[in-house]
Amino acid sequence: MKRILTLIVFCHMFVLGLAAQNDAQVKQKINEAASALTTMQCDFVQTKHLKMLNGDIVSKGKIYYRKSDRLRCEYTSPTSYIFVMNGDKALLKNKNRNRVIDVKQNKRLRGIVSIMTGNVVGNSLSDEKNFQTVIATTPTEWIATMQPIRKDIRRMFQRIILHFNKQKAMVTAIELIEKNGDKTHIEFKNIRANEAISENLFGVH
Fold first, then answer.
1. Which of 26, 54, 55 is nearest to 142 (CA)?
2. Could you read off the pLDDT of 46-85 as tens digits, one per residue?
3. In sequence order, what are the residues at sequence separation of 6 or more whose Cβ sits closer than 8 angstroms to the Cβ of residue 25?
4. Whole-angstrom distance, CA of residue 66 vs CA of residue 7
5. What's the burial of 167, exposed, middle or buried (CB within 10 Å: 0-12/13-18/19+)?
6. For the chain, which domains are there?
7. Is 9 exposed, middle or buried (0-12, 13-18, 19+ CB in 10 A)?
8. Phi and psi for 10 in degrees, rounded to 5?
9. CA Rg, the chain, in Å?
């Protein structure tokens, strides 16, 4: 379950950026960028630091998004693992089996998916019920540090840090800080927006 929730939060942050912002101008720019977004695809590099291990675990993959309820997070190395969200259905797939989940029947998943879909249509940018957010500004980035309020997310993450490209108002990196001290850094590369993406990539079966 933890891995499922991590993937959903990961994809959610990639597509929208964030669930709460305090700066009105930043919020407006991100909302405008999200509203104009119909599709997105990119490569990602994920580096996970575990307190119990000396070295880091590096994974690579691709993300595909299609407005407003289709997501595909595909890990390609060192192992293959796929998460697909299509409406109320989610697919978890590895080399051994496929697992389809009815999101409507899972209260915990339904809550997080609700945050995700709300952000896609721009309705949750001021959702202070779920996150407390502080934004810092550099010459090239907005850096949003998000403190979860919801218990289910707070049990997983101590904080979530998002890095935005100021010119495009889009996420370029995410840092997930877990309660036990483990850290995950996800960098997005070769981002392509509003290009055609095959519906076949979002099949859930």
1. 26
2. 999 998 888 899 999 998 888 878 888 899 999 999 988 8
3. none
4. 17
5. exposed
6. 2-202 (2.50.20.10)
7. buried
8. -55, -50
9. 16
* CA gap 119, 35 in Å, rounded: 10
3-state SS assignment for residue 164? strand
With beta carbons less than 8 A apart as the criterion, state whether 118 and 100 touch: no
- Look up residue 88 and give its amino acid: D
Question: pLDDT tens digit string along 135-148?
Answer: 888 889 988 888 88
What mean pLDDT is predicted for residues 86-92? 88
End-to-end CA distance of the chain: 19
| CA 203 centroid distance within chain | 19
Runs of H (alpha helix) within 46-166: 107-120, 151-154
Enter the pTM of the model.
0.79
**Would you say 69 and 117 are in contact if contact means Cβ atoms under 8 Å apart?**
yes
